[in-house]
């Protein structure tokens, strides 16, 4: 039992999720990047990286450079980004 | 086919001329459609003196490539150019240049229109405008009027 718990902890410690914030959200959250040891989905990553800040209704999410949803699952090594509606062009 | 982001000022007509000078499609294209987006000195607020264009570099590059590829699949384009500015710009500075070359006008015109609309809704760029009262993030696209 002890052995399997140790393995679980070891596995969690080995995970790495990169979280990025852009534009007004970067300013609101107060930092550009956060590294998380674990997050099951984008929503959990948001909650952990913002200290449970309420997610804006128009929040956009990208996982590994593609648009995703808050419910989208995260895997070890993923990069999840949060940003407001885009306004280029 | 080319798409990139520029951290320094861009000269739209020079970029288009340079792209055309590299082409080997002379005689094949009958239409060139262009869109140039330029910074205004007004928005919902007056007297905008400067603007900061932020982006998500890796995703921007991916999306500009994806848009260009999609346009090629939808229309018979012979060449395509997309250049978007980032960093600090002032009124009168070019923000985006899109040019499409095709044998007949409809493909170039439609592709150019589609590209600017899709870019505005998908590519991860954000604008922060400044006037004497301070800076404010632009919260959405205009409908193009």
From TrEMBL, chain A:
Gene3D superfamilies xref list: 3.10.20.30
Record's keyword annotation contains Glycoprotein: no
UniProt keyword terms in alphabetical order: Nucleotide-binding
A single Gene Ontology CC term: molybdopterin adenylyltransferase complex
Pfam family, one: ThiS
UniProt GO BP: Mo-molybdopterin cofactor biosynthetic process
Molecular-function GO terms, alphabetical: nucleotide binding
Protein name (record): Molybdopterin converting factor, subunit 1
Naturally occurring in which organism (per UniProt): marine sediment metagenome
Automatic annotation (TrEMBL), chain B:
A molecular function GO annotation: molybdopterin synthase activity
EC number: 2.8.1.12
Keyword check for Hydrolase: no
Pathway recorded for this protein: Cofactor biosynthesis; molybdopterin biosynthesis
Gene Ontology annotations of biological process type: Mo-molybdopterin cofactor biosynthetic process
Keyword Disulfide bond included in the entry's annotation: no
SUPFAM superfamilies to which the protein is assigned, alphabetical: Molybdopterin synthase subunit MoaE (SSF54690)
Classification via InterPro entries: MoaE_sf, Mopterin_biosynth_MoaE
Self-association state and partner proteins as the record states: Heterotetramer of 2 MoaD subunits and 2 MoaE subunits. Also stable as homodimer. The enzyme changes between these two forms during catalysis.
Matching PANTHER family: MOLYBDOPTERIN SYNTHASE RELATED
Family, per entry: Belongs to the MoaE family.
Name this protein carries in UniProt: Molybdopterin synthase catalytic subunit
Annotated organism of origin: Methylophaga aminisulfidivorans
Lineage summary: Bacteria, Pseudomonadati, Pseudomonadota, Gammaproteobacteria, Thiotrichales
